[in-house]
Amino acid sequence: xxxxKRDKKVSLTNTSKKGLVLKQRIIEDVKKCMEEYNxxxxxxxxxTRNTKLLDLRAEWKDSRLFFGKIxxxxxxxxxxxxxxxxxxxxxxxxxMRNHTMKGQCGLLFTNRTKKxxxxxxxxxxxxxxARAGFVAPQSVKLPEGPLPQFQHxxxxxxxxxxxxxxxxxGVITLIKSYKVCQKxxxxxxxxAQILKLLDKPLAVFKLLLLGVYTKKHGFKKLAASKVxxxxxxxxxxxxxxxxT
Length: 244
Known about the structure:
Helix 1 crosses helix 3 (70-77) and helix 3 (70-77) packs antiparallel against helix 4 (89-99). The longest helix has 20 residues, at 17-36. This protein is 30% helix and 24% strand. The protein has two domains: 22-129 and 203-221, Alpha-Beta Plaits (2-Layer Sandwich); 134-198, Alpha-Beta Complex (Molybdopterin biosynthesis moea protein, domain 2). By secondary structure, the chain is of the alpha+beta class. Residues 225-236 and 239-244 have low confidence and may be disordered.
């Protein structure tokens, strides 16, 4: 009987004993998944959040998600035709390693159909609060006047974040209109914090399918859908009587 590709040993050098055990476990898990599941999808993660990843794992209990440790996962798959654990899987491993230069990515091992996975991914997106370094997809402007959504004790915090505020009869008030961010701005930590306080989630947590591997057809690239849907309006005016 010919020797299985999955029996190949992977060398991990310059690794502590504890780290070696963890990495070897990941490699063995990847190899086991190659036996248990019919398809492997390469996924790009947009605006990743740990809580959302936990939700995904719960939603896909019948499948297996791998995020992070990309170099170790690639070792488990095999980075060349000589070291790969299944025919043609090294193409997926290399595509995954190349994509890490552009952003985060992961793998979804599943027995669900290709059509089902693609339809799910295309319809899955969750609004999230933007973080520092995020490029604002739209402008957000606050008009002059009271901000009744905030407790009076928050006035020093808002002023420290750069907002022109004062307390007037116990109500936080903007003494002039204030533009929180301009479309195309790379958000600072202060801008991101203000947007969160205003309950304005501008980021979208989304998964893009970049490719799929099957034992029958090998690795095929998939056309990634657009990351975000831009707002048609150039600027968002936050009403004074909103419920944020």
